């Protein structure tokens, strides 16, 4: 398992994207700590309990339309209007033969009525309603329990709570929910050349982009974030940063310094301080990547180029975080198949994650590359809305061929 740093030059150690992801997921245990929170604070969090419907939803048969509640058996004969009911204001007497009640959407269907005649099909004459067609039994009625039967599983433990899930739970009257605690993630960037925003750059210096990308991606995943700043390419300082990060977080991410350059210390440090699982992935962008354990924390050493940082985060760190925060599978972003708007070039050997945009073609949705694909071209990723995945052995893809696409915007 622990690869010594002398192995660093050997490409035979490179893993495929799938192998790497499988190893990462296998070494990523879900959190067990839970906490109770109000539903209003649960967006983006993971449910830690199965939740059942304590009562049927809807609880009562109610009208799907504005119209008249009546008895189907009375056919097309006139009905005497004996009252009205609104949502929240039921009509409490039973409906007898030849009678009807004015009813609004969401109002409880009164006892005795088995059909709602929509108002467009009702003629009103002298306080009488004459149907223009035979009202069918059950028409325009939402039956009790149609959405959820009493006792049915509403949501499973491991569900990531988006707005629709919050609305479902609110509909059941559930005010407090048991959630997995938030995953604590500490991160820092490495590089003597990095400067903070607001500073003036000397020759060779650049602004630190990666921490802003990481902060955004981690915030969307609902993590508790610890930004440890920029660390110089100095083994002592890097070791101290790794130690500090591992002491405070469930997951630690560094960017840069993970390759085999003279100022790249991350893999070596990880080898001596913790354990390294592997460090090369057969993909483009983002070949050098360290994954391992630092004490109890999961560690990712992501490559320094911002495009590589983000692409490797989406392929490996995001699935790991989703699993660790207690979310159930699938942890990998969904892959669509879309036709290519134009040919794409590629050399055989590594899996490509080219930056793309969805375009509306003659036959429907297509995908196009954003142009320059080098891993330092951040404007390409900033204008992309998807990644186009080209298999390792492929040597390009012709126009019109179906390619695998991962949407970037749908990703939490
Ligand atoms: P490294 O992996 O440290 O060799 O870095 C690879 C490339 O990414 C170099 O050109 C670095 O200057 C650049 N880079 C590293 N970290 C960052 C960062 N935080 N923001 C922007 N560029 C970076
Ligand atoms: Mg560096």
Could you characterize the architecture of this molecule?
The structure is a single chain. This protein is of the alpha+beta class. Helices cover 19% and strands 30% of the residues. The chain has seven helices and 26 strands. The strands form seven sheets. It has a six-stranded mixed sheet with strand order 7-4-6-5-9-8, with no helix packed on it. The chain has a six-stranded mixed sheet with strand order 16-13-17-21-20-18, with helices on both faces. Strands 19, 22, 23, 24, 25 and 26 form a six-stranded mixed sheet that branches. A hairpin with a 2-residue loop joins strand 8 and strand 9. The longest helix has 19 residues, at 306-324. It is elongated. The two termini are 32 Å apart. The model is unreliable at 1-10 (pLDDT under 50). The structure holds adenosine monophosphate (AMP) and magnesium ion (MG). Magnesium ion binds at residues 190-191, 233, 256-257, 263, 304.
Which properties best describe this structure?
412 residues; 7 helices; single chain; binds adenosine monophosphate; 6-stranded mixed beta sheet; alpha+beta; binds magnesium ion; disordered N terminus
């Amino acid at each position: 398992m622990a690869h010594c740093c002398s192995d660093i030059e050997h490409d035979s150690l490179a893993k495929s994207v799938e192998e790497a992801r499988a190893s990462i997921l296998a070494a990523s245990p879900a959190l067990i700590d839970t906490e109770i929170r109000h539903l209003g604070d649960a967006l983006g969090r993971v449910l830690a309990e199965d939740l059942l419907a304590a009562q049927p939803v809807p609880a009562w048969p109610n009208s799907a339309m504005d119209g008249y509640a009546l008895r189907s058996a009375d056919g097309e004969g006139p009905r005497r209007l004996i009252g009205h009911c609104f949502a929240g204001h039921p009509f409490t007497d039973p409906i007898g033969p030849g009678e009807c009640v004015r009813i609004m959407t969401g109002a409880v269907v009164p006892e005795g009525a088995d059909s709602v005649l929509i108002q467009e099909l009702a003629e009103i004459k002298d306080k009488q309603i004459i149907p223009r067609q035979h009202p069918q039994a059950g028409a325009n009625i939402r039956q009790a329990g149609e959405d959820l039967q009493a006792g049915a599983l509403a949501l499973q433990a491991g569900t990531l709570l988006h707005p629709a899930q919050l609305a479902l739970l609110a509909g059941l009257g559930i005010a407090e929910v048991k959630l997995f605690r938030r995953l604590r993630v500490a991160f820092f960037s490495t590089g003597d050349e990095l400067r903070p925003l607001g500073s003036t750059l000397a020759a060779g210096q650049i602004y630190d982009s990666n921490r802003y990308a990481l902060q955004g991606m981690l915030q969307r995943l609902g993590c508790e974030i610890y930004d440890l700043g920029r660390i110089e390419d100095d083994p002592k300082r890097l070791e101290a940063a790794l130690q500090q990060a591992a002491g405070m977080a469930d997951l630690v991410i560094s960017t840069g310094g993970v390759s085999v350059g003279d100022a790249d210390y991350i893999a070596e440090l990880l080898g001596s301080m913790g354990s390294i699982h592997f460090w090369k992935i057969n993909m483009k962008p983002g070949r050098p990547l360290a994954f391992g354990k630092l004490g109890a924390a999961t560690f990712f050493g992501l490559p320094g180029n911002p495009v590589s940082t983000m692409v490797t985060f989406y392929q490996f760190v995001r699935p790991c975080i989703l699993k660790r925060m207690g979310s159930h599978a699938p942890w990998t972003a969904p892959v669509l198949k879309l036709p290519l708007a134009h040919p794409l070039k590629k050399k055989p050997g590594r899996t490509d994650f080219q930056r793309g945009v969805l375009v509306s073609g003659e036959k429907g949705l297509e995908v196009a590359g954003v142009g320059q694909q080098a891993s330092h071209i951040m404007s390409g990723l900033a204008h992309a809305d998807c990644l186009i995945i080209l298999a390792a052995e492929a040597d390009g893809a012709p126009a019109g061929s179906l390619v695998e696409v991962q949407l970037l915007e749908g990703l939490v």
